[in-house]
Amino acid sequence: MPTLTWWAHRGSGKGPTENTLSGMKTAVDAGFKAVEFDVMLTADGLPVVHHDWVMGRCAMSDDPALAGTDPLTPLASLRARDLRHYSVRGERIPSFAEVMQFCLEHNLQANVELKATQPRDAIRLGYAVLSALSELPEPLKSRVRADWVFSSFYHASLMPLKGLRLALLYETLADRWVVHADALQAEAVHLHVLGATPEAVRRIHTTGRQVRVYTVNDLEIARELANRGVAGLFTDRMDFAQHSF
Ligand code: G3P
Ligand code: MG
């Protein structure tokens, strides 16, 4: 059976510390060598690490001046400086640059999931991520190029990143997936656990590409997927980091 990598989903598992630096530290302490996190754009174009399109579930305003702020305020309507007024359990929403730095310092492999808040922002997000990568000094930039994986449901976000390690994200495999995979030279496909059927996994493997699956929080399902030759599993379970098959 090929080696299977466990990835800490949303940095530390879906929940109160998801996509935060302290959450990722928990994942490191649990033994994870790889993390997945979500990147979105503020109104003024800063890539930040956050999952939801609207504030309120994770990040609440802690500024009395914003006390009445609608919890459904779209993240994409806020400027980077406005985000200082929001916190995830007392912790600021980190920028993509801060999370990159953290992962590099802790030798974590990363899967950067690009989440455009609306279709017309998809390419803009790709360029913002590319620009942040270009700021990295060598040899860190080369490490990112060699190890990190960039994925998106919005394939347009991946276009500016062509040449890096790319993965198409789907819930279930789309009919014309291979056209997109070829166009982007994507090396992998990431599927929802319900979409990772034996047939879908086989079709992807036939083209020489790897399959990774989200979100797997059950060891029996994990074992089945490992038997199908899946290369990686995204999990919310921090206690799965050391589990092997
Ligand atoms: O990247 C895989 C997975 O994270 C996609 O789902 O909603 O948790 O970002 P979501
Ligand atoms: Mg994600």
Automatic annotation (TrEMBL):
Location of the GP-PDE domain: 4-245
InterPro entries reported for this sequence: GP_PDE_dom, PLC-like_Pdiesterase_TIM-brl
Protein name, as recorded: Glycerophosphoryl diester phosphodiesterase
Taxonomic lineage of the native organism: Bacteria, Pseudomonadati, Pseudomonadota, Betaproteobacteria, Burkholderiales
Pfam families tied to this protein: GDPD (PF03009)
UniProt organism field: Limnobacter litoralis
Origin: domain of life: Bacteria
